[in-house]
Design goal:
With 288 residues, this protein is an alpha/beta fold. The protein folds into two domains: 3-68; 90-287, Vaccinia Virus protein VP39 (Rossmann fold, 3-Layer(aba) Sandwich). It is 41% helix and 19% strand. The chain has helices spanning 3-18, 21-36, 40-45, 53-67, 72-76, 97-112, 129-137, 153-166, 214-217, 225-232, 253-262; strands at 79-81, 84-86, 118-123, 144-150, 172-175, 187-192, 238-247, 266-272, 278-287. The strands form two sheets. A seven-stranded mixed β-sheet has the order 5-4-3-6-7-9-8, with helices on both faces. Strands 1-2 form a two-stranded antiparallel ribbon. A hairpin with a 2-residue loop joins strand 1 (79-81) and strand 2. The N and C termini lie far apart (66 Å).
């Protein structure tokens, strides 16, 4: 079996879980590239190269792990986010495309305020994809300070690994429960992709999610528990006139605005993602 034949053969096997040949082919490319320690372009240039039995065995092992619904990112220990390769393992949530839009919203706000010192807090930092990406975007600005707060010790190890691999500078990393933490100084900006999946929907979700840490996914029966807790104490984190950016579930917008009102939070609004779904709870001028 040569490389091209392997790509076609394993793509057909992966259709079993992807239900789409194009997606299956991309996944086969990723897994075969990883197994051979090769680039995708090299797979093309060497497409007629015959694979050894050992190489085929290694590819088979990866394909079989994927056929059991283990996410590709966990198999290859890597996920691209905002054009940056992040190390990930099953102690952290896999970064997703929607969260890149959250970065864009925060980035645009920061650019308008770049002339002053800006402190940013990433709550529930996971792999550090939000805080590290923002630090990378504003790496040349010494007046942008970023703090990542994460309760999981294992996730903290992932953040520090990504920080070392990606950044020239540093972010502040704090291993603590964000709901009980009281910062010495309030922040100008809060950014977060917190757990917001409803437990009531758990049995109907894609099987891949069963590999991701439940504490990073689920937040009570309706998915709103974390928001209710963090919005209740957000005044401890955020300066008056500051801004917050939260990723949310597509069907949670109206309820979250009601929760904000119940805590006296003014100027909160909902922004849609590129697919037109409610996806972000934002406040550009925090008051209560």
């Amino acid at each position: 079996m040569n490389i091209n034949q392997a790509l076609n053969y394993y793509s057909k096997k992966l259709i079993e879980i992807t239900k789409d040949y194009k997606v299956a082919y991309i996944e086969a490319q990723i897994l075969i590239s990883y197994s051979l320690n090769s680039s995708k372009s090299k797979l093309i240039s060497e497409s007629s190269r015959e694979l050894s039995e050992n190489e085929i065995d290694n590819i088979e092992k990866l394909i079989n792990r994927r056929l059991k619904y283990k996410p590709i990112a966990y198999i290859v220990s890597k996920k691209e986010f905002y054009g940056i390769d992040f190390y990930v393992d099953n102690s952290v949530l896999i970064p997703r495309a929607e969260t890149e839009e959250l970065i864009d919203l925060a980035r645009d706000y920061i650019k308008k305020n770049i002339e002053k010192n800006i402190s940013i807090c990433d709550i529930g930092a996971g792999s550090g994809n939000i805080s590290i990406t923002l630090k990378k975007v504003f790496e040349d600005f010494e007046n942008v300070e970023i703090t990542a707060i994460e309760i999981s010790e294992k996730a903290i190890e992932v953040i520090k690994k990504n920080e070392a691999n990606i950044l020239k500078g540093k972010i502040n990393v704090i291993n603590i429960d964000a709901l009980i933490f009281i910062p010495e100084k309030k922040f100008d900006i809060i950014v977060s992709n917190p757990p917001y999946v409803a437990l009531k929907d758990k049995d109907n979700l894609q099987k891949d999610l069963s590999f991701e840490p439940e504490t990073a996914l689920y937040s009570g029966y309706d998915g709103l528990d974390f928001y209710k807790k963090i919005l209740r104490v957000i005044y401890k984190y955020l300066k008056i006139g500051g801004a917050f950016f939260f990723e949310i579930g597509f069907n949670q917008g109206e309820e979250l605005l009601n929760i904000c009102k119940s805590f006296g939070i003014k100027n909160a609004l909902i922004e849609k993602d590129l697919s037109g779904k409610d996806r972000f709870l934002i406040c550009y001028d925090f008051r209560y």
